[in-house]
Fold these 3 entries.
Entry 1:
Amino acid sequence: MSSLLTNTSALTALQTLKSTNQSLEQSNERVSTGLSINTAKDGAAYWSIATSLRSDNNSIGAVKQGLGLGGNSVNIAYQGLNQANDILKSIQGKLNLSLSPGTDKFKTQTEINSLLTQLKQVATGASQGGESWLSIDSTSGSGYQNIRKIVSSFTRVQGNIQVDNLEVDLNTVKLYDKNTTAGTSGTDASQTSLATYQTAKSSYDAAATTYKTSAQTAGDLTTWTNATNTYNTAKSTFDTAVETANKAATKGADGKGGILNTQYAVFGTDENGFRKQYQLAVKDIDITTSQNTDLSKIRAFIQVVDRAQKSIQDSASVLGSMQLQVESQKNFIDALTKANTTSIGTLVDADMEEESTRLKALQTQQQLGIQALTIANQSTQSILSLFRS
């Protein structure tokens, strides 16, 4: 039955065309954006997961920047420590040279002063953003914080965000600290029995002279034997006296400060072999007051430089280990970002080959729908022909 009021065929064709147009619009959007899920209405679950992953990637990007910045601080401090260690090697060589007879200690001190200036420049110059980890001021009230934190990772566990840090304790790497505490004194090797020492040494020296003379005129066997016995007895007496005195000497305690301005409690031996205790810092090296009759202070400075070198090497090892951690974390963050990006693509990216084929099919369906609607609308016109005759 045909009806002028209700055109069922047209209504059906119109509904089909609307559906096709909606699908075509959706397909056009996917092709233009490259996304199969662009908003929550396209798929709430996948859209929510993808949005969280994108947010995580943004956070991870910030972590990577922080890690890069902190890693640069670690690298700068590490390079500074290595350079300081090389300069200390040069200073150590100058000190050893100054023990040789005839060395011009004033010229050598001038060279050492230049190296000490370089050490200070290295410590203050090894900085980033105006902050040096090697030259600090830990004075109370200065706002000093010994722990420096480097953002290292970002994780989401059961919906909860967690940011982890790598920590550097500046107290373990600082070369200079304006806040210092002097070391405490110990005691020198006792010379209360100096007369005994001097008598033993005189016998030692006399026996040594006789021994050398006998060696040159070895034809006198008796003189040779007597000189040898006297020499051995005197030497044993003297060595025993020195050993006893040295065992009773005490070193004192180290002060506090940076590696290069801390007063270290060390021993230096004088020309007779007796220990003398000192509290000395690398920054205060001065060999001009040492006489050839007593080079114990220079020997003590050699001990101070050796201790400073060992401390710097330990600090460099700590920072070197942290460099590896930072590099490893950077690599992990890169891998994590790529994994998240891949996951987002799997969830929301459109299959462009499929969408292209679908788009063409929908365009054809749209044309057919328009044609069907046109035919359906023309059916009422055929009814009019029944009334013309």
Note: The chain has a mean pLDDT of 80.
Entry 2:
Amino acid sequence: MFLGALLDLGGIDVPSFVASLHEFLPLSFAVDIRKVHRKGIVATQVVVSEPNPPKERRARDLFDLLTGSPLPEALREKALKILWRIAEVEGKIHGLPPDEVHLHEIGGGDTLVDIVGTLYALDLLGVQAVYASPVPTGRGFIHTAHGVLPVPAPATLELLRGVPVYTGTLEGELTTPTGAALVSSLAQSFGPCPSLVVQEVGYGAGMQDLEVPNVLRVILGEREERAIPERNVLLETNIDDMSPQILEYLTERLFQAGALDVFVTPIYMKKQRPAFTLSVLSPLSLAPLLRTIIFEETTTLGIREYEVTKWVLPRTATEIPTPWGTVRGKAVTKHGRVVILPEYEDCKKIAAQTGLPLQEVLKIAQESASREGVPTPGHRENH
């Protein structure tokens, strides 16, 4: 439904898109894209099928397919991260290592097409941020390879930890594990639609014909200049009995897992013992994972957790021409004025290569951005 809604927006050449999927994924599969009606709404339905699928696949088989794929590196890493989350959850439920999990309902090639296709479509559309409403799960029971299970399925519910959900009044499964993994991994926050200048609206059709239109609606637009609130979680713990050498590795691992920010504050605890406060800013959906990492990698016995609101100014990725080549940057709109911020890591590499002071490289990059009038395309949002 997510992929169907993105294709329904227009702006993507469908035959070329499908050809790219076949190039990215070394599988034998067919993609049927059609228009259907759901209670008076015309929506795009995507049906993926494998002519001769294996009876079952282990998660590691899908990891191997993705790892060897010619998919662009950034998209491949995102796809692997989403697939790993699914495998971790299934492993937890069935008591198996993640890569040994047999993925029954979500083990076919359609899972990879759903994940890779959605990421690729978002990339083609230039979407830089995704926001979602609370997630409907449905209710009742479903038949699976493991027998009759309650709705939401155990894997779906695990993948939606930290995400606002509601069962609603409809019988049946409204959110699948793959859908839960996608929305919880991609959405920056959940709640009302942020203030947008609407450009396109797309509808993706589900397989069932329900009492209400069984569609997923996607709104593509540019964010207004004013700051947008994001709901995050702040994890904190005080530590006074751990070597600070661990902090570098811990910080790297937290950032790799999706932490938005990690910082350490020196403090004094009881009896004036020197210590520090570890603070981790997390998306709602990743708080359980980041808590686990903190418990694994530190000596702490407890973690405080607060839900916080972060106000974010609109920003776009841009490129800055410099005497040493192109430098990545961010264009931030403040009070109607665009401010260009050069990417620190790019300037750091230039300083190391040229021997120039880093401050001088940053200054020249900023002056170049102002002089050249770096283009700042609209910040496209997806809700």
Note: The chain has eleven helices and 22 strands.
Entry 3:
Amino acid sequence: MDHFAVVQSIVRAALSGDRAAVGKQVARLRERLEKAGDLKDAATLERLLAVVDEAKDIAPSRVEVSRTLVSGERLSPDVNPPIDRETGARLCTITFGRCDVQAPIYGGALHETIDGLLQEWSNAAALQSVGVEPTRTLLIYGPPGSGKTVTAHYIAERLGLPLITARIDGLISSFLGTTARNIANLFDFANRYACVLLLDEFDALAKLRDDPQEIGEIKRVVNTLLQNLDMRREFGITMAITNHDRLLDPAVWRRFETHVHMGNPELGAREQLIARFLQPIAAEPSTLRIFAYCLIGHSGADLERICAATKRTLALKGEAHDGPALFRALSVVLARTPYHDHLPARILATDPEAFISFVANDADFGMKQTDIGEATGYVQSRISELKKARRHLSMTEPTHVQ
């Protein structure tokens, strides 16, 4: 086997966990491939190295959070969380920071919002000098899989603080008075330590209002929650996340100074997410464009799932890790899904050539035929034929590329 000595060095470095050595040996293999004339393989390794460097660049650096925002003892891994006295179940989980956390990928406005919050928390004195305080309460809402929980973990990591996560539905007990006591115990615990408190499934209490047998108990629970949210401002930062923001009372909304909506990613963010989820395959921009075009309306979690299925299909078929093979694998994956809301995905799932005709005729999308060819493996003359044929397409149905 050509270059086996270098491959052996890469394997040895990977097994020892020496990432720097792995990068050095991969660069060495790339140089040997270039000298041997294997320029395509060398270019693939070059792109893989660039992906690794990009991942290092976007790894979040810690924000020096103002001590005026967070008080309390240091929370260590040997501290046990509070429990429900009736059932013995833990009221929360505790997550400590990881140095390998990648920054979430957002659209422009959302990125500015999250970055602005981090700046607030690291520049409390500047804000206080003009008579305002940094945000201490944050409500994140949006559809499932849009990155709400990932964002909460990312914020805690950037602040260098442990994250205490409590599911509101996990605090609810069938024993009279226990739910309010669980909430009080949770907040007492969070207020004791320097941390970020995350309240998950925050709409769970609102759902219980529909039970006429529990009106009195729920009022006590909601009052306990609101009182504890008010008092916690003196101790630290609180976040809440929900998929059902319309169920929340106006009184609950008022307790949160900043409201952040997280929807499905736009075109640019989809391309970046797909590039990340396809790793270690280094997809070309034209391939990312095709994937993003097909997957409009999908959440970040959906994109990750589809990319993983695409890689499995590609690996089992034993095909090259290039654009045309990824295109064929995506078509197979989409064909396994019974229904697609988005027309291009529906077409690709049943007829790849009809899809090529569709995308070539989409003037709003504006993808060049050369790029379509690079991503799909079709020669330009065939793409021109398919464009003219406009094969059994519902051209009146809008694609709404966003």
Note: The chain has a mean pLDDT of 84.
